[in-house]
Every structure is written in structure tokens, then in C-alpha cells.
Amino acid sequence: MTRTNLLDLSHPQLASLLAELGEPAYRARQVWGWLYKRFALSIDEMTDLPAYLRARLAERAEVRLPAVIRALTSDDSLTRKLLLKLDDGNVIESVLMMYDLTEESRERRTVCVSTQAGCAVGCPFCATGQMGFVRNLTSGEIVAQVLLFARELSSARPGQKQAPAKAAAEGETHLPITNIVFMGMGEPLLNYANLWQAVERLHDPQGFNLGARRMTISTSGIIPGILTLATEKLQVNLAVSLHAPNDKLRNIMVPVNRKYPIADLMKACRSYFEATKRRITFEYVLNDQVNASEELAHELGKLLKGMLCHVNLIPVNPTDATFSRPKRDVVLAFQRIVESYGIATTVRVEKGVEIRAACGQLSAKQAKAS
Ligand code: SF4
Q1: Is the minimum distance from the CB of 128 to ligand 1 under 6 angstroms?
Q2: Residue 44 per-residue DSSP state
Q3: Lower Cβ count inside 10 Å, N or C end of the chain?
Q4: Half-sphere exposure of residue 228: CA atoms within 13 angstroms, side-chain side
Q5: Cβ(192)–Cβ(225) under 8 Å?
Q6: Contact assessment for residue 203 and residue 235, using Cβ atoms and an 8 Å cutoff
Q7: CA-to-CA distance for 334 and 122, rounded, in angstroms?
Q8: Contact status, residue 334 vs residue 286, Cβ threshold 8 Å
Q9: Ligand 1: residue whose CA is nearest its atom 7
Q10: Which domains does the chain have, with CATH numbers?
């Protein structure tokens, strides 16, 4: 019989399991703390549970985390990527990005999480998109990616003085994860139920306790998912991968646009804003000779003018695909034009190019090699 993965359970489900074993309610809180505050890798590690309980729990359940088959750290030690093998042999990736932004209050340690093995959306600039869809991840497989990095960051010696991001990279201090972006392999809103369970579990103040506003869900524009998200009580951030300001180009850049065209997508984004009053981020990967022209910058500015939004311009990461990164002055010209329409923009800090930190790059390589 397959044992239950404790990471697949909500807090009430864990409480039911322990109640079935005849245990009082506080035992569930204890186990929950081991999973989400102390990042236990096994029931054996839960040493303040009596031995008889650990043995009985282990008959029914286990802590099942994906196996780390490769770990890569960038040259500046601030980006770390894990290649993870799931139970069924599928491989996914997760990335930890540490931003040493000088002012201590602004330091960020962000985990980029995968929600599916492969992806059905098929964006041509994305290595995952070129793999096709394999399957949805379970909620446990989603939270496990965060917990693995949290464990790495917590294995450390508190109180030391050097720059925290650097120290964390060297594994020398206890630093919490500050942000989670559901932006790794897969389309999160096509795995909505498991995604949302993971969000709620990571938000739970009795456990991992990460504020909803520190979590960002990135979508290629799945309208039903955006509308459902607008009804949720937890107000996570929404990022929409736009990548083109008109249907003709977006049908190529983000093929799901044929099903959910730009006019409908903008309508859904406005409904989301009306319901949540939360600013939306639009992601725009800049591909040289494809979507980085001044004309398209004007078109983008006109499309978004008047919306409370932010545009994140991302010079494309070099992949095996046929796109190339525009020169810096092209990126800056594009940015200036969009901003002239009163829209806030940033050019995303490029991180981990040398370790193929962009979504799916490493597992695509692994798949080709195997
Ligand atoms: S960019 Fe995102 S939505 Fe597009 S193929 Fe890659 S993983 Fe899927």
C-alpha cells in the first residue's frame, strides 16, 4: 500500500489522520511544525514525538520529497537551482534567487516553483514549452520545492555579520524565504486546485507563515483561472505573461492566446483589479527582432494605458531556441516608450544565466541527455 505523503495533507487532514491513530489534537500541531517550521525530511526526525507514535505514523505515512539529482550555484552564489526527480521519474526544477539589495529591509530570498512537469502552453522561447505537457504536480510536490530551499537556508549558524544574501549562499546563517513565485515549469492556473492548496499551506500562520502578498502566481493568460483567483480570500499577486501587444504576434509568442485573446484577457484583468484592487504585473520577455521594436512599445503603452499595472521587461535568456537577447539600448528605448504612457516598468535583473536558471532549461537538457 502506498503511504500518504504528509506534504500532500492540509492541516485538518493531518489532524484527522492523527485522530484516527487515537492521538490528541496537539499532535497535529507538533507534526505540522516539524514539516513547515523545521523542514523535517522524515518522520524519524520528529524526535519530540514518542517512539510508538513515530512508528505508527510511519506505517501509514511518510515525508516524501523529490530527490535532488543536481544542484547548481551561480558564479556570484546568489542563484541556486535544484533539478528534482519526482517519484515517477519525472524531472522538474526550482530556483532560489537571493537579492542583496543593500538595505536590510529590502533583502529578498525568492523561490521560483514549478507547478507542472512540462507545459501544454508551448511558448516558443521557453525550454519547458518545448517539452510538452507531462502531468500536474501534487500540492505536496509543489510545497516540497519551497521546503527543500528553506531547509538549506536554515541549516546555519545564526547571528553572523556578513551580507545576509552572501552568507545564506554559503549556508552560514538562518534566513527565511521571503517570497515565492509560481513561475517555474508549467502553467499554474491549469493546475489550480493543487496550486491553491499549496498557497494556503505555505500561508498557514501555524506553519510556514508566508504572507499572501509575498506570493506571486504567474499565468500565460488562463482567463477562468484569473477570474477564480479574483474570488479568493488570500490576496496573492498576479503576474500575466503578455509578451506581445496584439493577437497576431501573441498567437505565436503565447499560443494559448488563440483560446484567450488579448481583448478578453484585458477584460479579465480589469475584473480582477475591480475585485481585488491589486496591481497586476505584466511580464514581457524581449526577443530581439520579434517583439522589441519601438512600434510595439507604443502599441503596448496604448494597450495598458490607464490600468493600475506594472510592466516587467525581461531580456530573453539564451536557450536552445532560436531567439536572441536584444542589446541594452534597445531594451532601454522600449522601456522609455512604455513609461511615456504613464506605466511603471522595470527591467528584470538577470540572474543565473550560466546555470540555465530560466524555466525548464536544465530539465530540457537532462531530457535530451537521457
Ligand atoms: S513560458 Fe510558462 S506558460 Fe509558456 S510554455 Fe513555458 S512554462 Fe508554459
Answers
A1: yes
A2: G
A3: N
A4: 15
A5: yes
A6: no
A7: 25
A8: yes
A9: 186
A10: 4-62 (1.10.150.530), 67-369 (3.20.20.70)
Atom in ligand 1 nearest the alpha carbon of residue 254: 4
CA 254 – ligand 1 centroid, Å: 8
CB-ligand 1 contact for 321 (6 Å cutoff): no
Can you tell me the distance from the alpha carbon of 349 to that of 252, in angstroms, rounded to the nearest whole number? 25
Q: Identify which of 285, 316, 354, 364 has the alpha carbon closest to the alpha carbon of residue 127.
A: 364
20 catalytically annotated = no
CA 202 to ligand 1 centroid distance, Å: 23
Cell digits of residue 49: 514525538
359 catalytic residue (yes or no): yes
pTM: 0.89
The amino acid present at 40, given as its one-letter code, is A
The per-residue pLDDT for range 69-102, each reduced to its tens digit, is 999 998 888 899 999 999 999 999 999 998 865 5
Backbone angles phi, psi at 76, to 5 degrees: -90, 5
Give the DSSP per-residue string, 270-317: HHHHHHH-PPEEEEEEE-TTTT--HHHHHHHHHHHTTSSEEEEEEEPP
Model confidence band, residue 367 (pLDDT cutoffs 50, 70, 90):
very low
Per-residue pLDDT reduced to its tens digit, 292-324: 999 999 999 999 999 999 999 999 876 545 678
Q: Tell me the pairing of strands 309-315 and 344-347.
A: parallel
- Binding site membership of 131 for ligand 1 (Cβ less than 6 Å): no
Q: Which three cell numbers stand for residue 240?
A: 500575466
Check pocket membership of 122 for ligand 1, CB cut-off 6 A: yes
